[in-house]
Please model this.
Amino acid sequence: MLTHLTIQNFVIVERIELSLEPGFTVLTGETGAGKSILIDALMLALGGKSDTDQIRQGCERAEIIAEFNIEHLPDTQRWLQENDLADDSGSCILRRVIEANGRSRHFINGISVALQQLRAIGDQLVDIHGQHAHQSLLRSDAQRALLDGFAGNDALLSQVKAAYQHWHGLNQQRLAWEANQSAFAQEKEQLTWQVDELTSLNFNPQEWQLLQADHQRLSHSASLQAAVEYSIDQLSEGDAALLGQLQTALTRLRQALDYDEQLQSPYQLLESTSVQLQEGIHELKQYQKRLDSDPQRLQDVEERIAAIHAMARKYRCDIESLPERLQLARDRLQVICGEYSGDNLIEAEASARQHYEAVAQQLTLSRTGAAQSLAKQVTQNMQNLAMAGGIFVINLIPVEQGNANGFEQIEFQVSPHKDTPARPLTKVASGGELSRISLAIQVITSKVSRVPTLIFDEVDAGIGGRVAEMVGTLLKQLGSAHQILCITHLPQVAAMGDQHWLVTKIKDAKHAQGISSHIDDLDQQARVEEIARMLGGATITTITRQHAAEMLQKCQNR
Model:
């Protein structure tokens, strides 16, 4: 729910900070005091359209901050996590800044976001009903979601969407196959000889490494042989071979040890060197025996390397990528020749279509029953909301071939008065009627609605007396399941509130406009005064105050 709202330099508001409570909150005040400004500011925080005219005169920018508690909104938490906007505090803070140069900046939990993201999460947090924009009830998708929520169709709707996507995917594959059979045949032929050619090459990265090493050795065998022979001659077989000279030196040192033991350390080091030198000479002689100078082997290696290079050039890839190209060709060939081709593809599509139709028909049956029940209950509520004789209708309009949402489009229709034909809700002329119809629907569907905060802007337009009291009762009832904010001019509605805000316009000589909008959270006595004002107008008598106190007490007892 909405927990805090800060508005700064917006229209005639210098700065307002509000803390909101659960339940039913009413906003009252004289016409022009700025009650709707609060709604307009909140709409901006939710991603509504901005205008530089909304910036308070003489200021450089307007700023709105709305903080929500989302601990019990798992879908919203999941959305924030998926968009890397989550906050461990259990809150979601929306911030909107409008600058005088026309620039608008948007933030979620302190992170700059696109306006579309602000709107996406705003739709999950607040729904505004009244004579203003942002009325989700007028959207076809919202009407469908509301009916499905009332019917408890979430799981069934997910099955329908999955079945449709599967069938639609197979349908597209089959159409592509039919339109491109000759192309597929040509591609199959090309892939077949590619697979055969790459398979016959029998290439693997390990072999490539060995080939390179063999070619390096064979192409330099003469140089290697000469280097080994020279080294053996200089170390052990020549007239001045190093090994012989070292052994002579060791003999002389060994004799000298009898005269000075300090020669022991250098003697041992040189003796170790002699052993290592003999081992090295032995390894050189073994290498000399193994050294291959076979010209035919060198030719074979060079031909193999040339064949591999030629294949890589042909397929325009690195040599190391040849096995990958072979696997890609095999995979594509398997797709073309696999189960989703020709007759198999047609059979698979038909089976998927049958499954989609089966689950979609179940959804239609569920919607039909729920539509009748919901329409009946809304119609009953309309009788108490100054729409006596009015009828609410939910039409299921068939959709040819169906779609991901089933076989029908949902359309809410209403006849506000007796003997008037039912028309789509979007064409209802009276904003007050639309607000009250919205109220009737929301009261019934409150247990399944996922939006925690509902705002009603002047739902009491054009009504009074008993009807006004009924509107207040319904809003009070709705406040047990949602956080409700309602702008009202009727004392019968205001008296039902759990929290009462008074919006006033005060003189402010500090600013060019000379006025500011101010909001007070009223205590019990102040509520009596405000309701008395709403009852009696400019002149408030003792009897008016008594009437107001009695009305307030009666509503609180209820």
